[in-house]
UniProtKB/TrEMBL annotation:
<keyword id="KW-0808">Transferase</keyword>
<comment type="similarity">
    <text>Belongs to the class-I pyridoxal-phosphate-dependent aminotransferase family.</text>
</comment>
<feature type="domain" description="Aminotransferase class I/classII large">
    <location>
        <begin position="31"/>
        <end position="379"/>
    </location>
</feature>
<dbReference type="InterPro" id="IPR015421">
    <property type="entry name" value="PyrdxlP-dep_Trfase_major"/>
</dbReference>
<keyword id="KW-0032">Aminotransferase</keyword>
<protein>
    <recommendedName>
        <fullName>Aminotransferase</fullName>
        <ecNumber>2.6.1.-</ecNumber>
    </recommendedName>
</protein>
<dbReference type="InterPro" id="IPR015424">
    <property type="entry name" value="PyrdxlP-dep_Trfase"/>
</dbReference>
<dbReference type="Pfam" id="PF00155">
    <property type="entry name" value="Aminotran_1_2"/>
</dbReference>
<dbReference type="InterPro" id="IPR004839">
    <property type="entry name" value="Aminotransferase_I/II_large"/>
</dbReference>
<dbReference type="GO" id="GO:0008483">
    <property type="term" value="F:transaminase activity"/>
</dbReference>
<dbReference type="InterPro" id="IPR004838">
    <property type="entry name" value="NHTrfase_class1_PyrdxlP-BS"/>
</dbReference>
<dbReference type="GO" id="GO:0030170">
    <property type="term" value="F:pyridoxal phosphate binding"/>
</dbReference>
Amino acid sequence: MALSNRARRARDASEPMMTFFTRVANAAGPDAVDLTFGNPHEMALPGLVDAIREQVEPRTVDWFAYQNSRPEAQEAIADGLRAELGLDFEPADIAMTQGAFGAIELAFAALADAGDEVVIPLPGWFCYAPMLRATDLVPVEAPLDPETFDLDIEAIARAITPRTRIVVVNSPANPTGRVYPKATWDALAEVLDTASAAHGRRIWLLSDEPYRRIRFDGIGFASPAGSYPWTLIDYSYGKVLLAPGQRLGYLAVAPLVPAVERAELRESLGSLQLAIGWGWPDSIMQRAVPALEQVSIDMTELTRRRDRVYGALTDAGYTITRPEGTFYLWGRAPGGDGDAFFDALVERGVYVFPGSQFDQPHHFRITLTATMDMLERAIPHFVELAQPEG
Protein backbone atom coordinates (compact mmCIF):
# COMPACT_ATOMS: atom_id res chain seq x y z
CA MET A 1 0.00 0.00 0.00
CA ALA A 2 1.21 3.49 -0.83
CA LEU A 3 -0.46 5.31 2.07
CA SER A 4 0.83 5.44 5.61
CA ASN A 5 -1.47 4.30 8.40
CA ARG A 6 -2.07 7.88 9.52
CA ALA A 7 -2.85 8.92 5.93
CA ARG A 8 -5.48 6.18 5.69
CA ARG A 9 -6.98 7.20 9.01
CA ALA A 10 -7.11 10.84 7.90
CA ARG A 11 -8.62 9.83 4.54
CA ASP A 12 -11.30 7.75 6.23
CA ALA A 13 -12.14 10.58 8.63
CA SER A 14 -12.36 13.05 5.72
CA GLU A 15 -14.23 10.82 3.29
CA PRO A 16 -17.82 11.75 4.29
CA MET A 17 -17.08 15.45 3.87
CA MET A 18 -15.19 15.01 0.61
CA THR A 19 -18.02 12.88 -0.80
CA PHE A 20 -20.58 15.49 0.20
CA PHE A 21 -18.49 18.35 -1.18
CA THR A 22 -18.07 16.58 -4.51
CA ARG A 23 -21.76 15.77 -4.72
CA VAL A 24 -22.78 19.39 -4.17
CA ALA A 25 -20.10 20.75 -6.51
CA ASN A 26 -21.16 18.39 -9.32
CA ALA A 27 -24.91 18.68 -8.87
CA ALA A 28 -25.63 22.29 -7.93
CA GLY A 29 -26.33 24.24 -11.12
CA PRO A 30 -26.22 28.03 -11.59
CA ASP A 31 -29.84 28.39 -10.45
CA ALA A 32 -29.44 26.21 -7.35
CA VAL A 33 -29.91 27.69 -3.90
CA ASP A 34 -26.66 26.71 -2.20
CA LEU A 35 -26.96 27.03 1.59
CA THR A 36 -24.11 24.65 2.43
CA PHE A 37 -20.72 26.28 3.02
CA GLY A 38 -20.04 29.80 4.30
CA ASN A 39 -19.00 31.04 0.87
CA PRO A 40 -19.71 34.51 -0.54
CA HIS A 41 -22.56 34.86 -3.03
CA GLU A 42 -22.06 38.57 -3.62
CA MET A 43 -19.07 40.66 -4.68
CA ALA A 44 -16.27 41.04 -2.15
CA LEU A 45 -16.38 43.69 0.57
CA PRO A 46 -14.97 46.97 -0.80
CA GLY A 47 -12.73 47.37 2.24
CA LEU A 48 -11.18 43.98 1.56
CA VAL A 49 -10.51 44.82 -2.08
CA ASP A 50 -9.08 48.24 -1.19
CA ALA A 51 -6.77 46.78 1.47
CA ILE A 52 -5.38 44.16 -0.92
CA ARG A 53 -5.11 46.58 -3.85
CA GLU A 54 -3.09 48.97 -1.67
CA GLN A 55 -0.47 46.25 -1.11
CA VAL A 56 -0.23 44.79 -4.62
CA GLU A 57 2.12 47.45 -5.96
CA PRO A 58 5.62 46.69 -4.60
CA ARG A 59 7.43 49.53 -2.85
CA THR A 60 10.71 47.72 -2.14
CA VAL A 61 12.67 45.01 -3.92
CA ASP A 62 11.83 42.50 -1.18
CA TRP A 63 8.08 43.11 -1.28
CA PHE A 64 7.38 39.54 -2.39
CA ALA A 65 10.36 37.90 -0.67
CA TYR A 66 10.01 35.07 1.87
CA GLN A 67 7.98 36.34 4.81
CA ASN A 68 7.46 34.97 8.27
CA SER A 69 5.17 36.80 10.73
CA ARG A 70 5.31 40.46 9.73
CA PRO A 71 5.66 42.97 12.62
CA GLU A 72 2.93 45.35 11.40
CA ALA A 73 0.45 42.47 11.31
CA GLN A 74 1.46 41.22 14.77
CA GLU A 75 1.20 44.73 16.22
CA ALA A 76 -2.25 45.40 14.74
CA ILE A 77 -3.57 42.06 15.98
CA ALA A 78 -2.13 42.47 19.48
CA ASP A 79 -3.77 45.91 19.69
CA GLY A 80 -7.08 44.43 18.58
CA LEU A 81 -6.92 41.55 21.04
CA ARG A 82 -6.12 43.88 23.94
CA ALA A 83 -9.18 45.96 23.07
CA GLU A 84 -11.48 42.97 22.50
CA LEU A 85 -10.44 40.59 25.27
CA GLY A 86 -8.95 42.94 27.88
CA LEU A 87 -5.78 40.85 28.08
CA ASP A 88 -2.24 42.17 27.68
CA PHE A 89 -1.25 40.56 24.37
CA GLU A 90 2.09 41.53 22.87
CA PRO A 91 3.11 41.32 19.19
CA ALA A 92 5.48 38.43 19.99
CA ASP A 93 2.47 36.39 21.11
CA ILE A 94 1.10 36.32 17.55
CA ALA A 95 2.09 33.75 14.91
CA MET A 96 0.61 34.58 11.50
CA THR A 97 -0.87 31.51 9.78
CA GLN A 98 -2.71 30.28 6.69
CA GLY A 99 -6.15 30.87 8.19
CA ALA A 100 -7.48 29.05 11.24
CA PHE A 101 -6.61 25.75 9.54
CA GLY A 102 -2.94 26.66 9.76
CA ALA A 103 -3.27 27.95 13.31
CA ILE A 104 -4.96 24.76 14.51
CA GLU A 105 -2.36 22.62 12.77
CA LEU A 106 0.38 24.68 14.42
CA ALA A 107 -1.20 24.32 17.87
CA PHE A 108 -1.47 20.54 17.50
CA ALA A 109 2.16 20.33 16.35
CA ALA A 110 3.39 22.53 19.20
CA LEU A 111 1.60 20.85 22.08
CA ALA A 112 0.92 17.18 21.34
CA ASP A 113 2.89 14.01 20.59
CA ALA A 114 1.79 10.97 18.58
CA GLY A 115 -0.83 9.00 20.50
CA ASP A 116 -1.95 11.96 22.61
CA GLU A 117 -5.69 12.54 22.89
CA VAL A 118 -7.48 15.76 21.97
CA VAL A 119 -11.02 16.36 23.21
CA ILE A 120 -13.30 17.95 20.59
CA PRO A 121 -16.94 19.11 20.81
CA LEU A 122 -19.85 17.18 19.26
CA PRO A 123 -21.41 18.61 17.19
CA GLY A 124 -18.39 20.54 16.09
CA TRP A 125 -16.30 21.45 13.08
CA PHE A 126 -15.91 18.44 10.80
CA CYS A 127 -12.18 18.98 10.17
CA TYR A 128 -10.92 18.54 13.74
CA ALA A 129 -10.87 14.73 13.54
CA PRO A 130 -9.17 14.44 10.10
CA MET A 131 -6.50 16.94 11.12
CA LEU A 132 -5.81 15.01 14.29
CA ARG A 133 -5.67 11.67 12.46
CA ALA A 134 -3.19 13.12 9.96
CA THR A 135 -0.77 13.89 12.80
CA ASP A 136 -1.18 10.60 14.72
CA LEU A 137 -3.30 12.24 17.40
CA VAL A 138 -6.49 10.72 18.76
CA PRO A 139 -9.79 12.66 18.68
CA VAL A 140 -12.09 12.09 21.63
CA GLU A 141 -15.62 13.51 21.34
CA ALA A 142 -17.34 15.34 24.17
CA PRO A 143 -21.07 15.82 23.41
CA LEU A 144 -22.67 19.22 23.93
CA ASP A 145 -25.96 19.43 25.81
CA PRO A 146 -28.41 17.75 23.39
CA GLU A 147 -31.18 20.33 23.96
CA THR A 148 -29.41 23.67 24.41
CA PHE A 149 -26.03 22.84 22.84
CA ASP A 150 -24.34 24.42 25.83
CA LEU A 151 -20.83 23.24 26.56
CA ASP A 152 -21.23 20.18 28.80
CA ILE A 153 -18.46 20.53 31.37
CA GLU A 154 -19.20 17.12 32.89
CA ALA A 155 -18.97 15.47 29.46
CA ILE A 156 -15.54 17.04 28.96
CA ALA A 157 -14.45 15.83 32.39
CA ARG A 158 -15.55 12.29 31.50
CA ALA A 159 -13.66 12.45 28.18
CA ILE A 160 -10.33 13.32 29.82
CA THR A 161 -7.82 10.51 30.37
CA PRO A 162 -4.12 10.39 31.28
CA ARG A 163 -3.42 10.73 27.51
CA THR A 164 -5.36 13.98 27.13
CA ARG A 165 -3.15 16.86 26.01
CA ILE A 166 -5.57 19.40 24.49
CA VAL A 167 -9.23 20.32 24.82
CA VAL A 168 -10.70 22.23 21.87
CA VAL A 169 -13.56 24.68 22.40
CA ASN A 170 -15.36 26.78 19.79
CA SER A 171 -17.29 29.97 20.54
CA PRO A 172 -19.25 31.31 18.73
CA ALA A 173 -19.84 27.68 17.88
CA ASN A 174 -20.13 26.08 14.46
CA PRO A 175 -22.72 24.71 13.70
CA THR A 176 -24.98 25.78 16.59
CA GLY A 177 -24.27 29.50 16.82
CA ARG A 178 -23.97 29.38 20.62
CA VAL A 179 -21.76 31.92 22.42
CA TYR A 180 -20.54 30.72 25.81
CA PRO A 181 -20.25 33.06 28.82
CA LYS A 182 -17.32 33.55 31.17
CA ALA A 183 -18.99 31.39 33.82
CA THR A 184 -18.67 28.42 31.47
CA TRP A 185 -14.96 29.03 31.02
CA ASP A 186 -14.44 29.43 34.77
CA ALA A 187 -16.09 26.05 35.35
CA LEU A 188 -14.06 24.43 32.58
CA ALA A 189 -10.85 25.90 34.00
CA GLU A 190 -11.54 24.23 37.32
CA VAL A 191 -12.06 20.85 35.62
CA LEU A 192 -8.87 21.18 33.58
CA ASP A 193 -6.81 22.25 36.59
CA THR A 194 -8.11 19.29 38.60
CA ALA A 195 -7.50 16.80 35.79
CA SER A 196 -4.02 18.18 35.08
CA ALA A 197 -3.06 17.76 38.72
CA ALA A 198 -4.59 14.27 38.91
CA HIS A 199 -2.72 13.01 35.84
CA GLY A 200 0.51 14.90 36.47
CA ARG A 201 0.39 16.46 33.02
CA ARG A 202 -0.79 19.89 31.93
CA ILE A 203 -3.87 19.92 29.70
CA TRP A 204 -3.93 22.81 27.22
CA LEU A 205 -6.98 24.60 25.87
CA LEU A 206 -7.26 25.57 22.20
CA SER A 207 -9.92 28.24 21.78
CA ASP A 208 -11.17 28.16 18.19
CA GLU A 209 -12.47 31.72 17.62
CA PRO A 210 -12.87 32.39 13.86
CA TYR A 211 -16.43 33.74 14.41
CA ARG A 212 -15.49 35.91 17.40
CA ARG A 213 -16.51 39.16 15.68
CA ILE A 214 -19.76 37.78 14.21
CA ARG A 215 -22.29 38.07 17.03
CA PHE A 216 -25.92 39.15 17.14
CA ASP A 217 -28.11 41.25 19.45
CA GLY A 218 -25.22 42.94 21.25
CA ILE A 219 -24.13 39.67 22.86
CA GLY A 220 -20.71 40.05 24.45
CA PHE A 221 -17.76 37.74 24.02
CA ALA A 222 -15.56 36.11 26.64
CA SER A 223 -12.52 34.08 25.67
CA PRO A 224 -11.41 31.18 27.86
CA ALA A 225 -7.97 32.79 27.71
CA GLY A 226 -9.18 35.03 30.53
CA SER A 227 -10.14 32.07 32.74
CA TYR A 228 -7.56 29.39 32.03
CA PRO A 229 -3.90 30.42 31.66
CA TRP A 230 -2.80 27.51 29.47
CA THR A 231 -4.75 28.67 26.43
CA LEU A 232 -3.92 29.25 22.76
CA ILE A 233 -6.32 31.12 20.44
CA ASP A 234 -6.76 30.46 16.74
CA TYR A 235 -8.46 32.98 14.45
CA SER A 236 -9.34 33.37 10.78
CA TYR A 237 -10.12 36.54 8.84
CA GLY A 238 -11.97 34.46 6.26
CA LYS A 239 -15.23 34.63 8.24
CA VAL A 240 -15.50 38.30 9.18
CA LEU A 241 -14.31 39.28 5.67
CA LEU A 242 -16.44 36.59 4.00
CA ALA A 243 -13.37 35.60 1.97
CA PRO A 244 -12.40 32.05 2.97
CA GLY A 245 -10.22 31.67 -0.11
CA GLN A 246 -7.82 34.37 1.11
CA ARG A 247 -5.96 32.35 3.70
CA LEU A 248 -5.16 34.67 6.61
CA GLY A 249 -5.24 33.93 10.33
CA TYR A 250 -3.14 33.60 13.44
CA LEU A 251 -2.35 31.57 16.52
CA ALA A 252 -2.07 33.66 19.68
CA VAL A 253 -0.37 32.66 22.92
CA ALA A 254 -2.54 33.92 25.77
CA PRO A 255 -0.79 36.47 28.03
CA LEU A 256 -1.69 34.48 31.17
CA VAL A 257 0.37 31.47 30.00
CA PRO A 258 3.11 31.11 32.65
CA ALA A 259 6.29 32.96 31.71
CA VAL A 260 8.49 29.93 30.99
CA GLU A 261 5.94 28.24 28.71
CA ARG A 262 5.03 31.54 27.06
CA ALA A 263 8.66 32.26 26.20
CA GLU A 264 9.19 28.73 24.86
CA LEU A 265 6.15 28.98 22.60
CA ARG A 266 7.11 32.43 21.34
CA GLU A 267 10.58 31.20 20.45
CA SER A 268 9.51 27.91 18.90
CA LEU A 269 6.38 28.57 16.82
CA GLY A 270 8.36 30.07 13.93
CA SER A 271 10.62 27.04 13.68
CA LEU A 272 7.58 24.77 13.73
CA GLN A 273 5.93 26.78 10.95
CA LEU A 274 8.99 26.21 8.81
CA ALA A 275 9.05 22.51 9.68
CA ILE A 276 5.40 21.87 8.81
CA GLY A 277 5.73 23.48 5.38
CA TRP A 278 6.11 27.28 5.46
CA GLY A 279 2.96 27.94 7.43
CA TRP A 280 2.81 31.74 7.04
CA PRO A 281 0.30 33.74 4.95
CA ASP A 282 1.33 35.41 1.71
CA SER A 283 3.11 38.75 1.89
CA ILE A 284 0.24 40.83 0.51
CA MET A 285 -2.31 39.48 2.99
CA GLN A 286 -0.01 40.08 5.95
CA ARG A 287 0.76 43.64 4.84
CA ALA A 288 -2.97 44.28 4.57
CA VAL A 289 -3.75 43.24 8.16
CA PRO A 290 -3.75 46.74 9.75
CA ALA A 291 -6.43 47.82 7.26
CA LEU A 292 -8.31 44.52 7.41
CA GLU A 293 -8.66 44.81 11.19
CA GLN A 294 -11.23 47.53 10.44
CA VAL A 295 -13.25 45.60 7.82
CA SER A 296 -16.28 43.45 8.62
CA ILE A 297 -19.22 41.67 7.09
CA ASP A 298 -22.41 43.77 7.31
CA MET A 299 -23.89 42.64 10.62
CA THR A 300 -27.09 44.62 10.13
CA GLU A 301 -27.82 42.77 6.90
CA LEU A 302 -26.74 39.44 8.39
CA THR A 303 -29.11 40.01 11.32
CA ARG A 304 -31.93 40.75 8.88
CA ARG A 305 -31.30 37.45 7.10
CA ARG A 306 -31.10 35.54 10.36
CA ASP A 307 -34.37 36.99 11.62
CA ARG A 308 -36.18 36.37 8.33
CA VAL A 309 -35.17 32.72 7.99
CA TYR A 310 -35.37 31.91 11.70
CA GLY A 311 -38.84 33.43 11.89
CA ALA A 312 -40.11 31.66 8.76
CA LEU A 313 -38.83 28.25 9.82
CA THR A 314 -39.98 28.44 13.42
CA ASP A 315 -43.40 29.62 12.24
CA ALA A 316 -43.50 26.54 9.99
CA GLY A 317 -42.86 24.30 13.00
CA TYR A 318 -39.11 23.72 12.79
CA THR A 319 -37.03 23.48 15.95
CA ILE A 320 -34.20 25.94 15.32
CA THR A 321 -31.43 27.00 17.69
CA ARG A 322 -31.49 30.80 17.56
CA PRO A 323 -27.87 31.70 16.74
CA GLU A 324 -26.08 34.15 19.01
CA GLY A 325 -23.11 34.25 16.62
CA THR A 326 -21.68 32.79 13.37
CA PHE A 327 -23.64 32.98 10.11
CA TYR A 328 -25.47 29.64 10.39
CA LEU A 329 -28.85 28.31 11.44
CA TRP A 330 -28.92 24.89 13.10
CA GLY A 331 -32.18 22.99 13.19
CA ARG A 332 -33.87 19.65 13.55
CA ALA A 333 -34.96 18.05 10.27
CA PRO A 334 -38.64 17.21 9.74
CA GLY A 335 -39.16 13.64 10.85
CA GLY A 336 -35.71 13.62 12.43
CA ASP A 337 -33.90 12.41 9.28
CA GLY A 338 -31.40 15.00 8.10
CA ASP A 339 -30.22 12.98 5.10
CA ALA A 340 -33.75 12.38 3.80
CA PHE A 341 -34.47 16.09 4.28
CA PHE A 342 -31.34 16.95 2.33
CA ASP A 343 -32.41 14.67 -0.53
CA ALA A 344 -35.91 16.16 -0.60
CA LEU A 345 -34.50 19.67 -0.82
CA VAL A 346 -32.04 18.68 -3.55
CA GLU A 347 -35.00 17.63 -5.70
CA ARG A 348 -36.20 21.22 -5.36
CA GLY A 349 -32.82 22.76 -6.18
CA VAL A 350 -31.99 23.68 -2.58
CA TYR A 351 -28.84 22.47 -0.82
CA VAL A 352 -28.29 22.47 2.94
CA PHE A 353 -25.69 20.86 5.17
CA PRO A 354 -27.04 17.55 6.55
CA GLY A 355 -26.37 17.08 10.24
CA SER A 356 -24.76 13.70 9.58
CA GLN A 357 -21.63 15.61 8.58
CA PHE A 358 -21.48 16.72 12.21
CA ASP A 359 -22.41 13.25 13.55
CA GLN A 360 -25.90 14.60 14.23
CA PRO A 361 -28.16 12.76 11.75
CA HIS A 362 -31.37 14.39 13.01
CA HIS A 363 -30.28 17.94 12.14
CA PHE A 364 -29.33 20.28 9.31
CA ARG A 365 -27.40 23.55 8.92
CA ILE A 366 -28.12 26.58 6.72
CA THR A 367 -25.61 29.30 5.88
CA LEU A 368 -26.84 32.89 5.92
CA THR A 369 -24.08 34.03 3.57
CA ALA A 370 -26.47 33.33 0.71
CA THR A 371 -28.20 36.36 -0.77
CA MET A 372 -31.60 37.41 0.53
CA ASP A 373 -33.04 36.46 -2.85
CA MET A 374 -31.65 32.93 -2.48
CA LEU A 375 -33.06 32.65 1.03
CA GLU A 376 -36.46 33.91 -0.07
CA ARG A 377 -36.54 31.35 -2.88
CA ALA A 378 -35.66 28.59 -0.41
CA ILE A 379 -38.19 29.43 2.30
CA PRO A 380 -41.31 28.10 0.50
CA HIS A 381 -39.59 24.75 0.00
CA PHE A 382 -38.76 24.53 3.71
CA VAL A 383 -42.35 25.39 4.57
CA GLU A 384 -43.75 22.75 2.22
CA LEU A 385 -41.48 20.05 3.65
CA ALA A 386 -42.22 20.89 7.28
CA GLN A 387 -43.76 18.07 9.31
CA PRO A 388 -44.95 18.08 12.91
CA GLU A 389 -42.45 16.23 15.08
CA GLY A 390 -44.03 13.29 16.85
